[in-house]
Amino acid sequence: MSAIDTIREIKHAENNAVNAIEEAKKKAAEIKLAAIEEGKNIISEAETTAEASAKELVSKYEKEAKEQADEIMAKEDKAIAEMANIAKVKILNIKLEDVIEF
Question: Considering all CA atoms of the chain, what is the largest pairwise distance in Å, rounded to the nearest integer?
Answer without folding.
Answer: 148
